[in-house]
Amino acid sequence: MRASLSGICLLLIVTACSGGTVALPTTVGSPSTTVTTTMTTTVTTIGPTTTSSTVLATTTVPRPLLGNTVVIDPGHNGMNWAHPEEIGRLVYIGNGSKACNTTGTSTSAGYTEAEFTWALAQLVMARLEDLGATVVLTRQDDDGWGPCIDERAAIGNRNNADAVISIHADGGPESGRGFHVIRPADTVGLTDDIYEASALLAVAVHDSYMETGMPVADYIGADGYTERDDLGGLNLSDVPAVFLETGNMRNDEDAVLLADPGFRDTAAAAISAALVRFLAD
Ligand SMILES: [Zn+2]
Question: Is the separation of the CB atoms in 91 and 101 below 8 Å?
Answer without folding.
Answer: no
